[in-house]
Amino acid sequence: MDNIKNKIQQLGRALGRQYVPDNYTDYKSLRSEYEALANRDVKLMQQESKKHRIQAIQGRSDLNAKWTFANLIEDNEDVIEAVSIARSFIAAHEDINWRRSGSHMMIFYGDYGRGKSHTAGAIAHELIEQYEISVLYRQLSSILEMRFFSYDYNAQDNVAQKFREINQELLDVDLLILDEVCVNESTLKKNAQSWLGNLLRQRLANHKNCILITNHNLAELEQALGSYCFESIKEYDTYKVKFSGPSRRKEIIPSQPETKPVTSGYRPNQVR
Q: CATH number of the domain that 81 lies in?
């Protein structure tokens, strides 16, 4: 026996009308609703996954978290120009063909405290956030020290294996930042020159980018690195940025000479 709903439908058809329940949703609308919900969930999962990937890259990079453009003081023409070049370098990564077309190197040079490392770090943070570019920040002197100690075959701290792992990272990472290049060195030892030159040549062949940070001027840098190593640098698409403004670091020694307190000259237990 037909229920009341069927009878109403039969009556509707007889009158040329179709019965539609109050809670009825057509298939097309229902499918669109579920697709929207699914797309939202997928987007949230992708955002969370990207967040974890970025955190992992940042954790490996060894970057100072404060080295951002927001914290960079643009109080001099050299820094303003450096930031402009840096932002152009970052924006170029939008073009996949540009990334694959060659190897690029930025040389930041100038005296201590001028913002070289900060600017390089800001570039790195932006590339990680926007394009998930892998970055490694290292001081050249610390790498060379580890390389030296890796030849101690009696060592028990596994330093040779650690250096091999770091050396592979230096080759593989998308952007390598080498700071304090030839600091307190007028000329690197020949074996260090060869090692660094080979590293740069292999990165060049694999279209990997570099930032070198040094306190030397360009002529002194060429002398310190040696011809073999410096010729490697010339093969890159090179951007040279000089930092010549005032130091941003806090003073420890006062700019005005300190005056000694005036004393009477009396000393306790003085024999007269």
A: 3.40.50.300
Beta partners for residue 240, in sequence order: 107
State which residues form the domain around 116.
74-243
For residue 177, the surrounding DSSP H or E stretch is: strand 175-179
Strand (E) or helix (H) holding 6:
helix 4-14
- Quick check: 180 and 146 in contact, CB under 8 A? no
**110 belongs to a structural domain:** yes
18-36 CB burial, b ≥16 within 10 A, e <16: eeeeeeeeeeeeeeeeeee
What span, in angstroms and rounded, lies between the C-alpha atoms of 26 and 5?
A: 18
* Cβ(171)–Cβ(202) below 8 Å: yes
**Exposure string over 163-193, b if 16+ CB within 10 A, otherwise e:** beebbeebeebbbbbbbbbbeebeebeeebb
pTM: 0.73
Question: Residue 1: is its pLDDT beyond 50?
Answer: no
The reply to whether 225 falls in a domain is yes
pLDDT value for 149? 72
Report the number of distinct structural domains present in the chain: 1
Higher pLDDT, 258 or 137: 137
Average pLDDT over residues 246-264: 68
Q: Are 78 and 245 in contact (CB under 8 A)?
A: yes
